[in-house]
Amino acid sequence: MATELAKVYEPADVEDRWYRFWVENRYFHANPASDGTPYSMVIPPPNVTGVLHMGHALNNTLQDILARWKRMSGHNTLWMPGTDHAGIATQNVVERQLAAEGTTRHAYGREQFINRVWQWREQSGGTIINQLKRLGASCDWERERFTMDEGLSRAVREVFVRLYEEGLIYRGDYIINWCPRCMTALSDLEVDFEAKAGKLYYIDYPLEDGTGIITVATTRPETMLGDTAVAVNPDDERYREYIGKSVILPIMDRRIPILADSYVDKGFGTGAVKITPAHDPNDFELGRRHNLPMIRIMEEDGKMSAEAGKYKGIDRFQARSKLVLELNDRKYLRKVEEYAHSVGHCYRCKTVIEPTVSKQWFVKMKPLAEPAIKAVQDGQVRIIPKGWENTYFDWMNNIRDWCISRQIWWGHRIPAWYCEECKEVVVSREDPVVCPKCGSRNMFQDPDVLDTWFSSALWPFSTLGWPDETPELELYYPTSVLVTAFDILFFWVARMIMMGIKFMGKPPFADVYIHALVRDSQGQKMSKSKGNVIDPLVMIEKYGTDAFRFTMAAMAAQGRDVKLSEERIEGYRNFCNKIWNAARFIHMNLGEFVAEPLNKEALETLPDKWIISRLESVSREVDKALKDYRFNDAANELYAFIWHEFCDWYLEFIKPVLYGEDSIKKQTTLNCLIHVFETSMRLLHPIMPFITEEVWQSLPFTDKKESIMVSEYPFYEGYSDPEGIEAIMDFLQGVINAIRIVRSEMNINPSLEIQVILHINQNYSDKEIYIQNTEYIERLARAKLVNIDYEIDKPKLSISQISTGGDVAEVVLLLEGVIDIDAETARLRKEIEKADKELKPFEAKMANEGFVKKAPAEVLEKTKRIIEELAQKKAKLSESLKRLEGLK
Q1: Selection from 454, 711, 726 nearest residue 610 by Cα
Q2: Tens digit of pLDDT for each residue in 93-122?
Q3: How many angstroms separate the most distant Cα atoms in the chain?
Q4: What pTM value is reported for the model?
């Protein structure tokens, strides 16, 4: 028996109910002992502080499509979920809470502060996981991991110790990016560079011998207090005589050398540059080459240090202002120019970072990068779209050592201890009690924690139980595919490949599918400041999860950003309504009927044979598209088939059978109808899981499983159309459309039957096939076919329209007594005048330079769209008028 459906599809009534059903029945849970080829993915772990944004929504929708498709295809599928502890971001959240309470983490103390962070995580850290469930994500929630849980923490420690023992982790003084707000080191990837309007200061450095000056240019004059040299290019003729001499550093009165180095750009400023090795990464490298002193003139909080002399204790930017005034007063400042340049900001708090020399922990990257480069070159790892390979190679071939220590409290504590007595450094899997060198118990642990990305780099194998040899690790590693955004290609993807090869002997995934950004409808990046952010949860609440997910999939074309608008989501909600109404139509015609397994040989009518042929063709194309990560092609194939071919054509074609008296023919067609519709729901399920489950469960057929989720995904590898059914149907649809076009253009009453002649192209000699199926043309186009032949004389009062079915036929509509040519001509002219009148003010706007310059992008886009629509309407009306006037 069929289950009755409500008149209107209400997503809120359906989604929570089915999601609970799936979870309660453990359909998301992967069993290593199950049969089936393994298929596994790890979720890019969202920050524990995060909430669902459009990037998450796209990323997880695509992953869920793959997971559901592979489960239904018989694979033993694991989609591993979890969250990242997000060291700096999480610490900032809790520190803001403490500040609101009038205290600080330092007042709390380290242990109490860490406990407070864990409390916050228990109360609020699961927000994004719940939001992913709202999206329909079918992750194996029974296996949910957290980068700070006990198992993953053990894996992190094991990796650190092994790398240290092999000499791939070391501690040393090096130039790093420092955030004075977060009070921690940052890796190069954690610095966001923004173009800023600044100034270029030209400062005179007097030669020590009193023979003149050398002028340097800098964007950061406050760093000159730490200068230890001036450098010029050895090929620069202007400065050849200066090389080897010395200057007196203004303000500090320190003698520093002038040296030659090819690093210096002759075209920048004056061609002579100041060298501050402790506060600039390029100067640091030059300083190491020339054995220059490294003077730190700033403290960790961004204030000037004792090495800055009289400027000690002043904030770096205040020091800049004061120093520039002093340089000007003392006649050292030659000039100041406006200068746009790129300034690094902390990716978390947006504070301007300060390069500084510091003692930090580093990973040697080149030995790890070489096999990771080879893995992509050899095809062990495919990056899709392929164009991203060049970006990957460029970064990997120029990789620098990775600063992995962070001066915060929340994170994996570095497993290194220092002996107060003999200064021995102990890196250990277990906390040491005594110094192994001198036996002292006076030891303390390094206060720093590891970069959050260090633990994330181990995610594909640590989540599966490594370093233990678990069944999950044996079966599901390496994973099948990683779905991710391009912006973490280096943060995460490259590091996972390096660590996977190092500790598992093989890359962590076979494919890396990189999806594009979700932008607004104008192609602009979404941001709160622009006010163009679309909240996925608001869209889900408004239009339903399925409509939102389908929008994401339909627009996820490889290598092309998603230009999202609310109208698109609303449009796909209409698709949900179309499916729902089709299901209700089927129910209205069922009675007590229960479908049996389909016997294709028993099908009698052309529409039944055609829709089965199309179903098999579409299922093959959708499966192929998903294999190639062409999510948009899969979605659009299904949309076109279900909306147009099934609903618009097939349901109309079969109505005479459903409403007729031939009960046997009706049962055959009902059987076909239910088979096609339930198969379509299975094809669509990975993209639109909720409505497909609701509708599929309501259909009456004998071999139904307990859920669409665990039913078989349709695939017809041997698809063919031996009888040419699809060509015949293309012909019929083309003729019907041609007649409908003319009826619409000529404003012919829909209820009025019109006489039609078909002039068939002689290349299509099987005229009898078309004669046998004219009933469909006559019924759906309200037409009477009076002649079908290869050669016909066209009556005077007639209009021809080429059939859209491969130009098989010319359709001639006989208009004698059907239309009043003079009245219709007058109507069309009036419509053209109206369209022209509506068009002119918009064209005038676009011709106005002032409007074009001042109007917002979305207003311009809307105006252009209106002009295009009105112009098309006017052209169509003009064409109809021209055809009508040709009849006179």
Answers
A1: 726
A2: 898 899 999 998 989 999 999 999 999 998
A3: 115
A4: 0.83
